[in-house]
Amino acid sequence: MNPLIASFKNYLQQAGYRKTTCMMLPACVSDFLTYCHNPFLEEITPEHVMEFYRWLQVRPNRKRGGALSESYIYQHIYALRVFFGWLEECGTLAVNPMNAVLIKPPQHKERQPLNREEIKSLFDVCISFKELSLLHLFYSCGLRREEAVRLDLRDVNFRKGLLYVRSGKGGKRRAVPMTGKVIADMENYIRHEREVAGSKDTEAFMVNKRGTRMSGDSFIRLLKEMLIRAEMTDREYTLHHLRHSIATHLLENGLSLEEVREFLGHRHIESTQVYVKVSEQQLEIINNE
């Protein structure tokens, strides 16, 4: 592996990016450098990036044939933004070529949050404390999938009523408050279901039927079982819908956008606006503060 790419990958790992991201971004940067015939970094210009972007739009998909998806193409642009931003931050580059590159991300279908009745229906069909704990992690505590996968027993302090996310997206840490109901249900899971299952993993908070750490796919399968029982199969629901929903409901309950941002673990308030329905009047007040 190119030493520069290896250093970039190490930076991503140290910064707390997801494992898949730590693999994907260096690969995208490597594609770009190969396309440019490995030029000196100081010689790279915005036009090099635009030429690469235009080439990706006509390059065939090597696995399935046809054209590359917009999301896949933009992954490369995002990778270059992170890469050159890192080089600029550590002083390797004086001028970041991406500052002059204006490429908008592809428009994704808006994710609709679950309403309160749908959330109640999911809680009503739970047949175990494990299922209740899943809803509490992703809805009541608003965790991302990878944060729930990484959650350890030591990260949940029932006495203080706090759940600690020690390595969130971008390496951001936060403490999430838990209500009495959340504490009771998750304590019951630990005492009556997790231990009874004979867990082989002594650190993971949530374990699967084999007693090892729950994966993201395991969480998704369990949620789908609950959705079927709740007769909520009219559209696709994901774990991230639960996080989206609690953000929306907290704002509806009167929390400020800044408070919701802290709860979700976002660095910038613009990221939070993607998750919640915010009125133009609320945004005007926030922007004028």
Quick tags:
hpI Integrase, Chain A, mainly alpha, DNA polymerase, domain 1, 2 domains, 54% helix, 289 residues, 13 helices, 3 strands, elongated
Describe this structure in words.
With 289 residues, the chain is mainly alpha-helical. The protein has two domains: 3-100, DNA polymerase, domain 1 (Orthogonal Bundle), CATH 1.10.150.130; 116-288, Intergrase catalytic core (hpI Integrase, Chain A, Orthogonal Bundle). The chain is built from 13 helices and three strands; from the N terminus they run H-H-H-H-H-H-H-E-E-E-H-H-H-H-H-H. The chain has helices at 3-15, 19-35, 46-58, 70-89, 116-124, 129-140, 145-150, 180-194, 216-229, 239-252, 257-264, 269-275, 280-288; strands at 156-157, 162-165, 174-177. It has a three-stranded antiparallel β-sheet, with no helix packed on it. The model is unreliable at 278-289 (pLDDT under 50).
* Integer average pLDDT: 86
**Main pleated-sheet profile:** 3 strands, antiparallel
Q: Poorly predicted ranges (pLDDT <50, ≥5 residues)?
A: 278-289
- Count the domains: 2
Which fold name is given in CATH as the topology of the largest domain?
hpI Integrase, Chain A
CATH homologous superfamily descriptor of the largest domain? Intergrase catalytic core
Helix content: 40-55%
Sheet-strand content, in percent, reads under 5%
CATH architecture of the largest domain: Orthogonal Bundle
